[in-house]
Design goal:
The chain is built from 15 helices and 11 strands. The protein is α/β, with parallel strands linked by helices. The chain has one domain: Amidase signature (AS) enzymes (Alpha-Beta Complex), CATH 3.90.1300. Strands 1-3-2-4-6-5-10-11-9-7-8 form an 11-stranded mixed β-sheet.
Length: 473
């Protein structure tokens, strides 16, 4: 192994070392628990740590391996997940006060798949209340803090997932993405996050925010780690009728094709919900230049006007969230944070005809994007977050409700939410640091079910750069 501290190794390195008998799952789990002891007080990424349960699982995984049974490519690897995935018989809060002691009646499909692959569960992670919020604030459980700078946001709503992976407390974590909530914390915390194609990963047994826009996916330290994790959790699920029956590729086996001859469209938008900060634009341009030196053919592309698409997404998420939360809002509205409740209440005042129109427009938006920005290219490269990371205080809409603050918070999802509406895959990869020392993330967007292409490009980029190897101190 490269590091004396096993917690600093990548997921695939740990998984392969366990499989090869060079280390044990117990050793990897103990290393992660020690890292949690060090970093949890700093970043508040965990809501619950299952110390004894995790060690018992790790001992069981080691015993199985000694008996010649390897469950799968993640056998013995410690992970933790956003507290919106149900584990039968255990509390699942969804980051809320309302579900503070709610016990799940079923286990989420993705957790069952990770169990089958041999994952050790360290616990469950902090998140924005009911996955509503792009910054990582949570008034009920305490705000999650960025491991690179504890005054700055983690990105949301999968705040604990981004922070725990970024701080090397876990090797991988599940997040969810309705408007950017995997890619935003990945970009903000300097890790890799994949929002796969709509229907690629089951959402059964997970708290819903918007049935039309929700995606489930992994956050990891490297693209290779991410590819391995997605291969395990992806696939059709009878318990989620929206999942696709398309076969799941071995994403990790397809990583090493390089980018020579691939066509990448560079998009540096100058308008939108938030203007592109020059240092973010420079980092994305540098990433494009790096891919060009590797043999990719990089050309400038223009994104379509996302205004109508963004508004359609807002209609969908507000209406669907209002429908889900109506019983709680009628009985205990005071248990919501103000900024969460007000966003959901807006859905009660949107006409059904407007909601239906938003759904009907989706196919038009997909055709428009594929025939414009993606015409003649294999992937589009653009920023994940268009500005340097602000502080937790600057973006606290619970205490600061002015137009400038609300505009800044809305700007977080300006370049991510469109791809939830389109349902196409988008990958966030670390590509630099801003002048405050906080990470910058680039976003790779591809055609439906072409996650393998995005992984291939991201992996080649990581082979030529070292941003993903840097870690907070």
């Amino acid at each position: 192994m490269r590091n004396d501290d096993l917690a600093l190794e990548d997921l695939t390195a740990i998984a392969d070392a366990i499989a090869g008998g060079r280390i044990t799952s117990v050793e990897a789990t103990e290393a992660c628990l020690a890292r949690i002891d060090l970093w949890q007080p700093r970043v508040n990424a965990f809501l619950r740590v299952y110390r004894e349960k995790a060690l018992a699982q790790a001992r069981a995984m080691d015993a199985e391996l000694a008996a010649g049974k390897r469950r799968g490519p993640l056998h013995g690897v410690p992970m933790a997940h956003k507290d919106m995935y149900y584990r039968k018989g255990e509390v699942s809060t969804g980051g809320s006060k309302i579900r503070g002691d709610w016990v799940a009646p079923v286990t989420a499909t993705v957790l069952n798949k990770l169990d089958a692959a041999g994952v050790v569960e360290l616990g469950f992670l902090n998140m924005a209340e009911f996955a509503a919020g792009p910054t990582g604030h949570n008034v009920h459980h305490g705000h999650c803090r960025n491991p690179w700078d504890q005054t700055r946001v983690t990105g949301g709503s999968s705040s604990g997932s981004g922070a725990s992976v970024g701080a090397r407390m876990v090797y991988g974590a599940l997040g969810s993405d309705t408007g950017g909530s995997i890619r935003l914390p990945a970009a903000a915390c300097g890790v890799v996050g994949m929002k796969a194609t709509y229907g690629r990963v089951s959402r059964a047994g997970a708290v819903a925010r918007s049935w039309s826009l929700d995606h489930v996916g992994p956050l990891t330290r490297t693209v290779r780690d991410n590819a391995r994790m997605l291969s395990v959790i992806a696939g059709h699920d009878p318990d989620d009728s929206t999942t696709s029956e398309k076969p799941v590729p071995d994403y990790e086996a397809l990583l090493d094709g390089g980018v020579a001859g691939l066509r990448i469209g560079l998009a540096l938008p100058t308008d939108g919900l938030a203007p592109l900060d020059p240092q973010i634009g420079a980092a994305i341009q540098a990433a494009a230049d790096a891919l060009g030196r590797l043999g990719a053919k990089v050309s400038t592309v223009t994104l379509p006007d996302f205004t109508a698409l963004y508004r359609a997404a807002e209609v969908m998420v507000k209406c669907e969230a209002a429908a889900m939360h109506r019983p709680w809002m009628e009985k205990t509205p005071e248990l919501y944070a103000n900024q969460v409740r007000t966003r959901m209440e807006a859905g009660f005042f949107i006409p059904a005809t407007q909601y239906i129109d938003a759904l009907r427009l989706r196919s038009h938006f997909v055709k428009e994007f594929l025939s414009s920005a993606m015409d003649g290219v294999d992937a589009v490269l653009l920023p994940a977050i268009p500005f340097p990371l602000p502080t937790i205080e600057e973006t606290d809409t619970e205490t600061k409700g002015g137009p400038a603050v609300l505009k800044m918070v809305a700007g977080f999802t300006g370049l991510t939410r469109p791809f939830n509406t389109l349902g196409i895959p988008a990958l966030s990869v670390p590509c630099g640091f801003d002048t405050n020392g906080a990470p910058i993330g680039m976003q790779l967007v591809g055609r439906p079910f072409d996650e393998a292409m995005l992984y291939r490009i991201g992996h080649a980029y990581q082979g030529a750069t070292d941003f993903h190897t840097r870690m907070p101190l």
